[in-house]
What does this fold into?
Amino acid sequence: MKSTLFDDRELWPVETTVGDVVYPPGGSLGPRIQQFLQLVIVHTGSMCVRIDGQQHYAAANTVAILYPGHEEHFAFAAESETWHSWMHAAV
It folds into this structure.
């Protein structure tokens, strides 16, 4: 059975990268333009991500999906370190 997700194209990455990082209390990243399909797994702390001007919140033990072509700015928990892992895929 063929999926209709992504206009019937296969979702198979041509490149993937994984990593993790710990941001200090009040850390931030961006703004940047997202280049890949990206999963962000927040292990501890939290993050607010402003995507094209709209705020999104991710607490510890959650996963966010980021799509290519959008401007993003990350603000991490003010009161604690934020540890998150990420995986990006060029599809």
Observations:
- The chain has a mean pLDDT of 91.
- The beta strands are 15-23, 28-33, 37-44, 46-51, 54-59, 62-66, 71-76, 82-90.
- The radius of gyration is 14 Å.
